[in-house]
Amino acid sequence: MPLTVGLISLGCPKNLVDSEIMIGHLQKAGMTMTPEPELADVMVVNTCAFIDQAKQEAIDAILDIVRARENGAYPENQKLIVAGCLSQRFRKELPALLPEVDAFIGPDQITKLPEIITQVMDRTIQNRNFIEGKCRYVPDWNTPRYRLTPPHTAYIKIAEGCNHGCAYCIIPKLRGRYRSRPMEDILTEARALAADGVKEVMLLGQNVNSYGKNLETPVSFAELLRMVNEVEGIERIRFMTSHPKDLSDELIQAMADCDKVC
Predict the structure, then answer these.
(1) Sequence-ordered strand ranges (E) for the chain
(2) Which of 150, 182, 228, 229 lies at a C-alpha separation of 20 to 30 Å from 37?
């Protein structure tokens, strides 16, 4: 029998894309997803830690699973893996605070989830904390992924991380420095989504306006918008988040010129 995995995804759309990538890798490994946690061999909670309310929501979700196992609502031998930004932010503290959790992974370990689950189930795990320092991972168009959005719409993560050190924001410490995906890689994904019936794409980044500056051959977000606007089959383009610091006249003009930009 294949292992059955349940997943709770919390936080922002960027976190949802991480959940989609985790599911894609789990399915590729032959594991089965279930929306019913009482039927799962393993529960995964993909957490957010951006603000206090998000941290509390994540802790509540984890403890709800722990209590459900204790009172018999979920299988007693069900395993629990905590993923995402809460694990990344508190990677040193959480293993001691949550001994009921079988493994902790951050955004960089999402593609390794099937092998981590295998180690947990086989009891060959050496260390519950799989997080290895700062985040560096960036997905590409060929990354296994199962979309959780309605069929007509999809997210495209164009970059990871952020270089701004805003006093109110923890994201650079959670997600690392800004890493742009190559433009052609993004366009390949957009074309594949259009071929699959997607009509609307949401371009995602912590600050989409910074896109392309760190590439070997720098490009601008305005250039990317114009290129996505040319993808046949895509009818609407949205983006988030757009920080005023890098909002340029070039980008404003591109938004005016591109008829698909909402």
Answers:
(1) 4-9, 32-33, 42-47, 79-84, 103-104, 153-157, 159-160, 179-180, 200-204, 236-240
(2) 150
DSSP conformational letter for 129 = B
Q: How far separated are the first and last CA of the chain, in Å rounded?
A: 46
What is the rounded CA–CA span in Å between residue 137 and residue 202? 20
Let me know: does 237 contact 190? Beta carbons within 8 Å. no
CB-based contact 10:45 (threshold 8 Å): yes
Element of type H or E holding 250: helix 249-257
CA gap 110, 226 in Å, rounded: 31
* Buried-exposed string 227-250: b where 16+ CB fall within 10 A, e elsewhere: bbeebeebeebebeebeeebeeee
- Predicted confidence (pLDDT) per residue in 144-195, tens digit: 999 999 999 999 999 999 998 888 888 898 999 999 999 999 999 999 999 9
Which tokens belong to 158? 């164009």
Dist. CA 178–CA 64, nearest whole Å: 34
Structural contact between residues 81 and 112, judged by C-beta atoms closer than 8 angstroms: no
State both tokens at 201.
């794409």
